[in-house]
Amino acid sequence: MTISIIDYGVCNSYSVKNMINRIGYPCNIINSPSEIKNDSKLILPGIGSFDNGIKNLKKFSWDIYLKNDFKPDKQHLLCFCLGMQLLFNNSEEGNLDGLALISGNVRKLKKGSMKIPNMGWRNLKLIKSHPITNNILLEDKFYFVHSYFCDLDEKHTVLAESNHAEPFPAIIEKQKIIGCQFHPEKSNIYGMKIIENFINL
After folding, report:
1. Nearest CA to 99 among 81, 109, 84, 78?
2. At what angle do helices 13-23 and 188-199 cross, to 10 degrees?
3. C-alpha span between 161 and 172 (Å, rounded)
4. Which residues, listed in sequence order, are joined to residue 6 by a DSSP beta bridge?
5. Domain covering 2-199 assigned CATH 3.40.50.970 in the classification
6. What is the rounded distance in angstroms from the CA atom of residue 76 to the CA atom of residue 125?
7. What are the residue numbers of the active site?
8. Pairing of strands 167-174, 158-163
9. pLDDT tens digits in sequence order for the chain, 201 residues long
10. Which of 9, 43, 96, 190 lies 20 to 30 Å from 24 when distance is taken between CA atoms?
11. How far is CA 134 from CA 110, 159, 190, in A?
12. Residue 182: phi, psi to the nearest 5?
């Protein structure tokens, strides 16, 4: 098994690498799809805006690989924050099409009485059992920083929710692709649980 962090210019790859190393696993930061092994556990982090993220994925040909060459029978993909949002059809934040690997759209959080962005430590409500949430407890808190959320057409793919004026998907899974709206690499021991669960899938 090879753990590979996809670096496409708008992600904090080294923070992710440091956390994986702290858990006790080696990993690689890769820039090109040509570096991927058939048995790879792939991680797609992300920070910043939707359109910039898509442009950078295309710049390094990651859009082609993820849409055409990802092998769900042999590989797993973990995406978080912007990386998760890029999986969808489009976003109210930008004008470009997303990867459309998961059906749905990225929408602006409702403000209500809450501040935007949603920033800070939040609990999860587990919706469905899945190995990615093994040993996650109700009191565990994860670090969020986002102004947009993923509005899925396929609601059955939601594994966990959080809340900001209204519930929103916090963890999703479809065909070996897992998305987390929070930042595992910034979520201390709780994020380490998620990443270790992913490695052990």
Report:
1. 84
2. 80
3. 9
4. 30
5. no
6. 23
7. 81, 183, 185
8. antiparallel
9. 899 999 998 888 999 999 999 999 999 999 999 999 877 899 999 999 999 999 999 999 999 999 999 998 899 999 999 999 999 999 999 999 999 999 999 999 987 768 999 999 999 999 999 999 999 999 999 999 999 999 999 999 999 999 998 999 999 999 999 999 999 999 999 999 999 999 999
10. 9
11. 30, 12, 11
12. -85, 175
pTM equals 0.96
Q: Quick check: 88 and 153 in contact, CB under 8 A?
A: no
**Residue carrying the six token digits 């799809």:** 33
Helix (H, G, I), strand (E, B) or coil at 54: helix
Cis peptide before 131 (omega within 30 of 0): no
